[in-house]
Each structure stands twice: as C-alpha cells, then as structure tokens.
Amino acid sequence: DGHVHLADYRAPAWRVSLAELEFELDPAATVVAARLHLSPDADQPGQPLELDGEGLELLSISVDGQSLPAGRFVYDGHRLTVHGLSGDCELATRVRIHPENNTRLEGLYRSGSLLLTQCEAQGFRRITFMADRPDVMPRWRIVLRANREAFPVLLANGNPLASQDLGDGRHEATWENPHPTPAYLFAIAAGPLERVSRQLRTAEGRDVEINVWAEPSDVPRCQYALGAVERALRWDEKRFGRCYDLDVFNVVAAQDFTMGAMENKGLNIFNARYILADEATATDADFLAIESVVAHEYLHNWSGNRVTLRDWFQLSLKEGLTVFRDTEFSADLHSRALKRIEVVRLLRARQFAEDAGALAHPVRPARYKEISNFYTLTIYEKGAEIIRVLHTLVGEETFRAGMDRYFAENDGKAATLEDFIDAHAQASGRDLSGFARWYAQAGTPTVSIAADFDEASGDYTLTIDQATPPTPGQPDKQPLVIPLRYVLYDAQGAVISAAPEADAPVRDGLVELSQARHVLRWRGLRGKPLPAFNQGFAAPVKLQFDYGVDELARLARLERDAFNRWDLIQQLASEALLGDADAEAATGALSDALADLLADAGADPAFVAECLALPDFDTLAEQVAEVDVQGLVGRREELLDRLAEDQVERLQSRYESLAAAAREGLSGQAMSARALRNACLSWLTRLDPEARLARAQFDAGGTMTERIVALRCLLHFRAPGAESALAAFREAHATDPLVTDKWIGLVATRPHPEALDDVRGLMASTWWKPANPNRVRALVGSLARSNPLAFHRRDGGGYQLVASQVAALDPVNPQVAARLLGAFESWRRWASPQRDQAREALVSLQGRLQSPDGRDLLERLLD
Ligand code: HT7
Ligand code: ZN
C-alpha cells in the first residue's frame, strides 16, 4: 500500500564497517568515488547486496578491484542490487552528481559560493550508493579535492587528518570520523569560509577546537553562536555527564537550508538564521532561539549520534529527547518559568491542533509513506513532553541514573524506544509498560475534574476522568499514565497539606493517574477549598475544571507556581473571549489582574509581558468546535482595545520607567525590560492613531528588538508614516537576507484581509526567491500560519494562493512545499464558507503534485 511499516523491520543483510569517499568537488559536476567495506550478516547469508542511490550517474563499479560485469548488478535509478557476493568484500563505485541543479537541498547542493550537504533523513543516497538507513554505521574516511581559490576551506565529519596542495590550482583535505556513524549524519562543507574559534579542554581532558564558519562578511556575527556552543558543551558535562568526543567541533552557517540546523557528526550545518546575530540585526528572541538551536544540535552528539536510531520510526528517540535536553539547558541558564511558558504556548497553539487534525499521528507512528513529513511538532514537542512525564514520574536523580544507563548500554548502537524505556525501568525499578502507551496513541488527552464538597462532614472529593479522542486510524484509546500535580488552598489562601485518600499513588501533591477514573478524597476540611492543577504543566493534557471567574481571579493571585499564575490569566482571557454568560465578568477580572501585574515593580517584566500576550488565534481556535475565523479575531481585537484603554496609564508608566534598563545590551534584565516595553508599546499604539510612541521608538534606532516591534506597530496599525519607515528599513538592510525576511514577515502578517494583496505584490517583485526556504517561509509561511484574516479571506484567495505556491514549489523543494500544506491540517473544523473553499483548494491540487512528500500529505488531508 506504499507504506513502510514498523512491524516489517529487518536487520540489514550487509554491514558496512568502513566507508571511504573521495570527492572531486565542482558545482556543475562532482565525481564521488566510494569504497564500502562490506560484511554479510551471519544470520542472513546469501542475500544480494542492496544499496540506495537516487538519480546517480554510475561511472564505474567493481568488487575487490575487479570491474563488475553488467549481469552481476542492476541499478534502476533508486536502488543498486549486486548479486553473487558472499563473504567480506570491498565495493568501489564512481558516480557523477550535479550540486548546482539541486534545488531540493537534499544531498550535495550549492548555497551561494558554498557547497554543502544535507543528508537526514534520506539525502545521502543522492550523493553515492549506500545502505542509507540509520542502523548501518560505518566509520568514515573522507577526501575532498577542489579548486583552492573557489573552495579554500574543505570540511567533513570527524577530525582533520591531512591536507595538501595538488599543484594544479587544486588542493585536498582528508578527514576521519572514528565513531560508528550512519549516513544521515554525513556532511561536507566547502567554500570561501572564515571562522571564529575557541580552544577548550573537556572534563575528560580532551583539547577541542570549536569553530563557527560563515562567508567572510558574516563572520563578525558568529561570536554569539560560538559562546552558545561552549555553554552547551559545559552544560552537557555538568547536567548529564556527557563529554565531547572529537578534536574539533565545526559549525557552518548557510543561507539556503530547508530546516533549522543539522547535527552531522562533528560538522553541524545551520540555517544562517540560527547562527548570525548582533544587536543591530537580531532580536532578543533571535538570540535566545540561536542559543537553543545551537544547544539542540550540540546535544544531539550523544542523544542521536553516539546513540542513534534503529529505524526512522524511532525518530522521537533522538528528537523528543534532544528537545527535552535543550529546553532544560535554556531553563537552567535563564528563567525556568518563562521557558515553560514558551514551550506550552507552542504546544497549545500548534501541537494540540496537529494532534486534533487530519495529520495527527502517534509520537511513534506505526507506518509512514514519506519520512520527511514526520519531522513534526508531535515527534519533537510532544515527544519532549513525554520525556518530561517520565522525568516527573521518577524524579531528577533516578532520571539521570536511567539516562546514564541508556547511554552506557547503547553507545555506538542503533537503539529503539524500548531500549530507552528499558534503561529507565531498570534504573527506577518501575514497570514502565503503561507509560510506553504515550508513544503509541495520537491525540491530546483531556483530564476532566469534578469537585464535590459536603458541608456537613467537610469531605471534599475530586473525581478525575481522562479520555483521549479518536484520531485517524485510532478510534479507541486506552488510559495513559499521567502525573497530575494539585494544590488545595483554604479560605485564608494557605496550602492544605493533608494528603488525600486515593485509589492511585499520591506523593507530595502529585497523583499518578493510570485509569479512566480516579477519586481523591479529603476528610473533615473546615471549609470548601479551592484547587489548582498541573503546576509546571507536568503532562501534555487539556485540563477541565469548572472554575467560576472569581475563583480563577483569586487563584491567579494565590498560586505559588509562576507558570500556573500565567496559565490562570490565560484562562481568564479565554473565558473573556469564549465564555458565554461570564465573558463580561472575566474581562473585568482579567483587567484587574493585569493592572496588579503592571503595578508590581517586583515582578519580572518579561513575565508580565507574557501575561499581557493573550492566547493567540491558533490556541483559541483549538478550544472551539467550529472556527469562525473573522468572529474570533474580531473578538480578540475588541478585548485588546478594551484592556489597553483600562491600562493606559500603567502602560505608559512602565514604558517610561523601563527605558534605562532596556538599554543594557544583552543582559537578561535588559531583554526582560525590552519585552515589557514592547508589549506596552503594542497596546498603547492601539489607542493612538498617530502612533507617536512607535514612530519615536523606530526613529531612535536602538536594538533590532526595538526597531522591529516599532515597525510592526506602524505597519499593523496602518499608522501615518508606516510606508516611509518600511522603505527606510528595507533600504538599510537590503543586502541582508535575514533582516529582509523580517520586514517581509511583517508585511505578510498585517492583520487585514488586504495583506494578501501585499503578498501577491511581493511575489511579483525581485524580493521573491522561491528557491530560498527562509524567504518562502517569511512570505507564504507567515501568511498561511500567522495571518488568519488574510489566509482565511472570505473570497478563498488565501487558500488559492497557498495551494498554487505548493504546486509551484513542489518540484523546486518538495519538503518546503509539503510543510506549507500543513496549514490546512484543521480545515474540517473551519466554518463555511472557509471549509468548502479549503476543500476546493486542496482538491485542485490532486494530480498536480509529483513528490511523494506532497502526495502523501494531500492524501491524508483529504482522507
Ligand atoms: N535532525 C535535524 C532534522 C533535519 C531535517 C530533516 C529533514 C529534512 C531536512 C532536515 N534538516 C535537518 C534537525 C534537528 O532536529 O536537529
Ligand atoms: Zn533535533
């Protein structure tokens, strides 16, 4: 049926112990000579050798030095089959490939003056023949030859071994990667690169050189990323006891890159937007994102590279685990509460929608057609939340013991989620079979809690029900193991410390749910308590408890847990926007809560800014059965206008009082001050048609954080002078593609249906670069994902534009095109006329997509 099934896994019939590759690099035509050292699997003797190879021009093929006659092998453009091999042998091939024509950015491709590779998940087969599967893990020796002037720097995985001049204008470099490494982690980078560099000694005593490479004019903007590498390296030593294992760690920045970055062994290749930064061109959010992506890729060196995957069904074993590790890194270095808020926002806005839409899938899918379509929020973010569930269940110390065991037992191997769970089961002495269900079931569980208080006896009962909704292919769901935190407050606001009677394990304010229903009961309380739940968001669930508005408001002041204080304010906002009877009361309570926060000089300004940022459109849309786009956006705007009016003096006062702190560079305090000032500015601009403050902030220069928010205010509120400010910004940064993406993103997200016409205008201009994924995301991705009024325009024009771009980009870069299609994942819940228009746009694509990526997604969307 065209699917790959988890149940069909078979160990490879041939192993590759060493891969020796020689590249004659040239953008137009590169020749790759490969020598694979092969051994048959003792359990599967006599099998033909089958290697992957996609669209390669085969120049020669030999075994143990003997050219192979035509009858011994077949190459059909996708797969090379060699017959008649028995024991250990060496297969040598030469192929020709064409990096310059490679717009899909998989395999070897050209980006500006660089030659680069991207091999995950199945790009290596576009470079040369190989068993391109993660459980085949040779050691590697790589020789790169190229013209010295065009390609002065030649990088590959592992350690540099030798380099020499070849005398004819060319030179060569030899690299050796001594660690068993699957082909998806292979990388080379060549070109006129320059670097910033740092020398350090690991906790195990290894001297390591860290280099961050970029095209020469970008090198001054690599310093921050270099520092981030060191911070990640030190953190992994301290928190997980994991040291770096090569003599060099190279990082390269590329302007053309399909995703964020790639953790190739010893040679990480990055989308330039996650490396290049200084205060004049990067926002505070950019700096934090750079640090977290740099850490993510670095941390893969153990969770993904040293211990890799048996097959692609295990993808979350490296991605969920590494997201968990990178969020812990950020939480340890900065504010744990703010990091949690950021993660939960993303989860609720995007992963919950994915889990409830046409593309829902388990964190470990049972089958796939195209693995590239499974680099999803579910695999990454929900996968990380599941690791957090485990961490909460066993505690930090036992979790660390489980991780030590996992790394020790699986080092140099291709592991499964069972291996991971097994190591933790051994370390904790717990049966984790119930926990494992998280990996198999799609859909976001709902935990509904009903309270009952008996005035006469003082008995208080919480009845807790869990249910996971049906998802494509999974109509019936089993209960999950859910660690649920709770607190009861008494009438004076003190925490009630008595433990309840329970039919589930309970400790320190945490109950472990594992059945469809559990009951907690407290005896003889003096009055009706007020409960709060899921502090720190210990499990990725939707929690339902029937709070009154007064109770939410009271709890928002009482809760000790900062994450929950923020969450309660979000609930008040949801109630104000979606509640029927109590919307007005909720608006008043929300306004009061925000007034208190704005007046609280002791509160972290960045936390206050998070509280001012109401639930976004996606989060709200996730909470209603049918989405009336214009109605929802309209109500949200009205609420913001009303709140801004209520708070105007406090907003002005905080905006002014934080001015000095906001000037203090990249310190946490300065970033925090800028976050609240910018939130205040956005609210104040609603009230001032002249946008005087935004104009002044834009004109004052300052950091990119300040300028870009001011420009957004001018553009999005259509203030006088917006066009000239945009023109000034555009000209000032015309040669910088990353900053150009920023203003393009602002134009594409102007909250007005007419923004669609601006997008069309840009697509007809020289700013449109369809082969550059960042530009496609800035223009079309922003429209589809972050501009509900234009994407869902009543005439269906937004859907048509995105669908026509999917068709146009499918042959250019199928992965980028397929990601755009994801914007339709919730189309069945959109109210008419949008639902019918979306169906029409999707149906119009049938028969027009050639790539497996696009076809797979379209089929699932329309299924
Ligand atoms: N592991 C990396 C995934 C990735 C990727 C996947 C498909 C196509 C292109 C890609 N580039 C990078 C990124 C990460 O999670 O670290
Ligand atoms: Zn990753």
From TrEMBL:
<dbReference type="InterPro" id="IPR038438">
    <property type="entry name" value="PepN_Ig-like_sf"/>
</dbReference>
<feature type="domain" description="Peptidase M1 alanyl aminopeptidase C-terminal">
    <location>
        <begin position="550"/>
        <end position="862"/>
    </location>
</feature>
<dbReference type="Pfam" id="PF11940">
    <property type="entry name" value="DUF3458"/>
</dbReference>
<dbReference type="InterPro" id="IPR037144">
    <property type="entry name" value="Peptidase_M1_pepN_C_sf"/>
</dbReference>
<dbReference type="GO" id="GO:0008237">
    <property type="term" value="F:metallopeptidase activity"/>
</dbReference>
<dbReference type="Pfam" id="PF01433">
    <property type="entry name" value="Peptidase_M1"/>
</dbReference>
<feature type="domain" description="Aminopeptidase N-like N-terminal">
    <location>
        <begin position="101"/>
        <end position="185"/>
    </location>
</feature>
<comment type="similarity">
    <text>Belongs to the peptidase M1 family.</text>
</comment>
<dbReference type="Pfam" id="PF17432">
    <property type="entry name" value="DUF3458_C"/>
</dbReference>
<keyword id="KW-0862">Zinc</keyword>
<feature type="domain" description="Peptidase M1 membrane alanine aminopeptidase">
    <location>
        <begin position="224"/>
        <end position="436"/>
    </location>
</feature>
<keyword id="KW-0645">Protease</keyword>
<dbReference type="InterPro" id="IPR042097">
    <property type="entry name" value="Aminopeptidase_N-like_N_sf"/>
</dbReference>
<dbReference type="GO" id="GO:0008270">
    <property type="term" value="F:zinc ion binding"/>
</dbReference>
<dbReference type="GO" id="GO:0006508">
    <property type="term" value="P:proteolysis"/>
</dbReference>
<dbReference type="InterPro" id="IPR024601">
    <property type="entry name" value="Peptidase_M1_pepN_C"/>
</dbReference>
<protein>
    <recommendedName>
        <fullName>Aminopeptidase N</fullName>
        <ecNumber>3.4.11.2</ecNumber>
    </recommendedName>
</protein>
<keyword id="KW-0482">Metalloprotease</keyword>
<keyword id="KW-0479">Metal-binding</keyword>
<dbReference type="GO" id="GO:0016285">
    <property type="term" value="F:alanyl aminopeptidase activity"/>
</dbReference>
<keyword id="KW-0378">Hydrolase</keyword>
<dbReference type="InterPro" id="IPR014782">
    <property type="entry name" value="Peptidase_M1_dom"/>
</dbReference>
<dbReference type="InterPro" id="IPR012779">
    <property type="entry name" value="Peptidase_M1_pepN"/>
</dbReference>
<dbReference type="InterPro" id="IPR045357">
    <property type="entry name" value="Aminopeptidase_N-like_N"/>
</dbReference>
<dbReference type="InterPro" id="IPR035414">
    <property type="entry name" value="Peptidase_M1_pepN_Ig-like"/>
</dbReference>
<dbReference type="InterPro" id="IPR001930">
    <property type="entry name" value="Peptidase_M1"/>
</dbReference>
<dbReference type="Pfam" id="PF17900">
    <property type="entry name" value="Peptidase_M1_N"/>
</dbReference>
<dbReference type="InterPro" id="IPR027268">
    <property type="entry name" value="Peptidase_M4/M1_CTD_sf"/>
</dbReference>
<keyword id="KW-0031">Aminopeptidase</keyword>
<feature type="domain" description="Peptidase M1 alanyl aminopeptidase Ig-like fold">
    <location>
        <begin position="443"/>
        <end position="545"/>
    </location>
</feature>
